[in-house]
Request: fold
Amino acid sequence: MTIMWVANTTAQYHNFMYRVAEQPKLIQQEIPPGGQIRIAANGGNLSPADIAAITEHHEQYGMVAAQDVGKHRGYLGLVYSLDRPVNLAKIQEQVYSNRDILTERGKANRQAAAVATSQQVEAHISQAGLPDVLKHIEISVEEIKGPKVQTRSVRDEALQRDLEESKPIAEGIRVTRDADAPRGRGRKRG
Reply:
């Protein structure tokens, strides 16, 4: 029989739902951010069929084995290990990687939103029959209040602090139609 551990490398609680081979009943266990659980089905002693049922289902949604952390470049939410807990260093490595990935993804999404907004404004100007052409548009994004992460059972204090102390976002995006946009900062157009 095998013991299975599942770690949550996200910044939010995860309700891990699974079924084991011989039981049709859905089992649910909550995993705190940066924490891990021992699979409780069958008293924690899982058969190879139980392990296969859990991993085959969750691997299609991105769960990976602990030894594969670092080999994937994308976002990973769940990591599992057999017969021993997931190494805390592996959990931390993926939590930090996930934060970087989501920060870059958010920046790309905001840039795409700025371009789409610029295109919508240009379309509106054109449809209204106005003679003006949009030269540039500036959009600023400021996170007023950062997300509050509740970390009840993260064992590592540094990881808990990092999860709780996310830095708010404040950035500006400028979409320019052509290279002839005004060069000087603070220059007034009249």
Q: What stands out?
A: The CA atoms of residues 69 and 90 lie 7 Å apart. The beta strands are 4-8, 14-20, 23-31, 36-38, 64-65, 78-82, 136-142, 170-176.
